[in-house]
Amino acid sequence: SVDAAGTRNSRQFSWQAIGLLSHFLIDANAADQPRTTRSGDPVVDAAMDYIWSHSHNQIGVPDVARYTGINRRTLERRFKSVTGLTLLNEIHHCRLSRAALLLRETDAPVKYVIGRAGFPNYQRLRQTFQKHFGSSPENYRSNHRKNDTVSRKPAA
Questions:
Q1: What is the pTM of this model?
Q2: Tens-digit pLDDT profile for residues 41-83
């Protein structure tokens, strides 16, 4: 429904648009971006594509295995032998990357970033940022803003 000022739907649309754009924002200089090279293993590449396309949802290793059609343990061994990482590590890396990107590139509230990046709650996001970046999500945002000299308008 729309409130008296007619802004509720447009605000919801704005958040949805930010969420969709987060899939296309790429910072070529950032180390927290997805790998653009293919592994050469079609199953591993399919798993990687699935993770980077769906990690904003509450997915886990069983979901990736189901998508690829391969036994979970077999997929985990194959993925690790090709990438050097576990499937769970890649899911966490993807979520962290998406959250960091949203914090750097948008004015979306942290509570929105939590959901768009696939974190279950603020505490998990905060713990992850503290571990990997040594700061809270809010401090990360203020320290890593792009174009700090350009005036930013809050998202509607």
A1: 0.71
A2: 999 999 999 999 998 898 999 999 999 999 999 999 999 999 9
